[in-house]
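Protocol step 4 of 6: structure prediction from sequence.
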Amino acid sequence: MSRQLIEKYRQRFALEVGGISTPHGGRLSVALVYPNTYHQGMSNLGVQTVYRMLNSREDTLCERFFLPDPEDLAEHRRAGFPLVSVESQRPLDDFDLVAFSISFENDYLNLPTLFEIGRLPLWREERGENHPLILCGGVCAFLNPEPLAEIMDLFAVGEAEVILPALLEGLLAVEPRSRVQLLAGLAQLPGVYQPGGYTVTYADNATLAGMTPHGNLPSRVSRRWQINLDDSQSCTWVATPDTEFGSMHLVEVSRGCPRACRFCAAGFIYRPFREHSPDHLRREILDEQTDIGRIGLVAAAVSDYGDLADIGRAILEHGGEVSVSSVRIDAITAAQVEVLADAGHKTLALAPEAGSQRMRDVINKGIDEAQILAAVKLLAEGGIPNLKLYYMIGLPTETEADVVAIADLTVKIRQIWEEIGRQRGRLGRLHLSVNPFVPKPWTPLQWAPMEARLSLEKKIRLLQKRLRPLPNVELRCESLRQAEIQGFLARGDRRVGKVLPLLGKGLGLKAACRQLGLAPEFFLHRERAADEPFPWDIIAQGVQREHLRREYEQALAGRPGSVCHPGCQRCGLSC
């Protein structure tokens, strides 16, 4: 059975272009683990960037691990066969450092399985001198690390480009050290958080009372970021057809977002907003390549990039294709649409987020209905046949009228889409993605409660009733169960991590919490007090809490805010 699994690994990854195949040769060995399947993980630019950084050094070597597909996972368990790497089929527990890259809270649910088949104790306190160190990086590591604080030895607080070099030098130091000594030394590095070095206390009402550092550890760990994006480039380094974006070469064009939507963590935890220069991108994408293929331009706000149309046209002129995931409603231009249509785009996504202007002001979306309909008209006239629309329900102060407004706006969008589609002789489809609002740390809405499931279910039924009569309109809603788990893990402290093995065994959130004496509604459905300490306050993002609180109060009053601009320092960071 073991040989069969190894052969499946080899056959599956035989089509990769890139990667490594050299022996370890005494180098520091790093296992890079993405807590989901290969199909999803190799489309993650963070994974690609860290893999390239580690394997570009002569003193380190990195191999990749992913959650096995369900049928392979069953074989692992039946055979007692350990989790092995993509490159050499080396077991996970044979590496010096195990580095997780985690971007989504719901992927926490896969950690007990990965530790189990990786033959590693899940809990930090159960690991000893002979076990590898466990590091967590990725967005979740500097959004709110506390739910994983009893699992991870270390967190990388910020962006890998500026944290990894010093971390690796600390690991490569030649003097013999115990595990405790090694962790204590690494915890002194900028951007490294060692959760075992802090004592956590709770108040009588179960809220967080404090996190006291041991010794000379900092009271808060400052996030670190790459100041000049042109000094590095996140892009596809290992290409394979067996992934979500396997036919594309992904290239990051900017990091963060200047728009300051009050629900969106990316607009706050990646501040200041940074862009690659056009000359740099042209060199990265166009130079010394005879066949550039399909280029996927990646950013939180791709259409905000001023030279998007020019770079896209240059890609087409070099015989390539250009792809973007979504476009900003008030930033898309006719020239950009022309490029995307010429590149063969069949579907583009717009995110009105809310149906009524009142709710768009609450979340500081910064667009009105006229702009939404103008963008729809621009895409339809440009020859894009299908449109995906993103909406949220359960936002603070939302009423039934605001939910009805989602359906009303969709009707208006469909009228434009149908009219222009008939003129062009092709009637496409509208795909609505409706997701429950999940309050996230480091956003102005971090104080807000998540709406209860019964209320959200009522709103979904209302939308279904309103939209069902519309031809060529498809409505999809995120699982409310998964959204609740996401909210619970996003806003929890280090007590909530204990539910992960129970959820992995099939228990629901309420049943798992009941076994541990926790109340899920305490973390999910209550408004946080203005001065309540947050678990994620252990991270110093650079964005001031006072600024976020002012924005929250403005949201509750239905007043829009402003966007970031060069020289702005309103939030505490210089943009």
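Step 5 (inspection) to follow. The chain has two domains: 2-204, 247-478+544-556.
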